[in-house]
Each structure stands twice: as structure tokens, then as C-alpha cells.
Amino acid sequence: MPAAPTQAGRFEQARRVQSMALLEDYAELIADLLATGGEARPTDIARRLGVTHATAIKAITRLKREGLATAQPYRGVFLTEAGEHLAARVKLRHRLVVDLLRAVGVPAEAAEQDAEGIEHHVSDITLQAFARYLKSRR
């Protein structure tokens, strides 16, 4: 068993990542909705994430508070530059995790589903190792 401060640090990191995962999912979805349909309405966000409208509004409020999004009445939600950067980073992480899972034989749908959780919890060091591994297979 690791020393108490080491273990506590690991759990603290996991809690921080979990808190940020929600914002990352929302930013990624908003970017996708904006790219494909030109707008990201709270109703569409809630439906696609499988949450209530009130839950989506609460998360959007947090995105705005964190400086990641803006919202205009009757116009939907838009990402700030920081929000766009976050969404792009999450999308890259997601794709890298999916690609690694597919490379080790995970079926496409399972890889997509599993990546939704893994992408938030994998360190940059581990992601770099994933990328090196995938590059070495080409």
C-alpha cells in the first residue's frame, strides 16, 4: 500500500479529473453541434447527453462561469476560445483512446463507449505512450 500522502494525492487527482470530465463532455458536444448544425441549444444538449433540461442548464452555467462558453437567449450556447481549445483537446484524446482500443482488438462500438470514460482519466504521459505505440504499429 502506498504512503498516505501518495494515496491521498492519487484520489485528489481522480476527484479533480471527475469534476472536469463533465465540462469536457459538454464542451466536446457543443463543438460537435456547432460544427454540424450551426447551433447548440440546451434542449439538444440535454437530449444528446441523456440528461434533463435543468441538468444541462446547470452545466452550461458552470461552463459560462469557467469562461468556456457564452449563451445568448434564443440563440443557444457558444464556446469561447478557451472552450474551443478544451473541446479540441478532448476530441483528440478521445480519438487516441479509441484508436488504441481498436488496435488491441476492441470492437468499434465498445471502443467508442469505453473511450467516453477513459479519455478523461488518462494522463498526458499515458496518452503519449499510446501515441508512440500506435505510431510504431504503422
The best one-word shape is globular
CATH topology of the largest domain: Arc Repressor Mutant, subunit A
Overall strand count: 2
- Strand composition percent: 5-15%
Oligomer: single chain
Per DSSP, the total helix count is: 6
Mean pLDDT: 91
Assigned CATH superfamily of the largest domain: Winged helix-like DNA-binding domain superfamily/Winged helix DNA-binding domain
What order do the SSEs take from the amino end to the carboxyl end, as H and E?
A: HHHEEHHH
The CATH architecture of the largest domain comes to Orthogonal Bundle
Please state how the strands of the largest beta sheet are arranged side by side: 1-2
The value of Rg in angstroms is 17 Å
Instruction: State the end-to-end distance.
Output: 39 Å
List segments where confidence is low: pLDDT < 50 over at least 5 consecutive residues.
none
CATH class designation of the largest domain: Mainly Alpha
Biggest β-sheet strands, sense, barrel: 2 strands, antiparallel
Helices, strands, pairings?
Blueprint (H helix, E strand, L loop, with lengths): L3 H34 L4 H8 L3 H13 L3 E4 L3 E4 L1 H23 L4 H14 L2 H14 L1
Antiparallel strand pairs: 1-2
Helix pairs in contact: 1-2, 1-3, 1-4, 1-5, 2-3, 4-5, 4-6
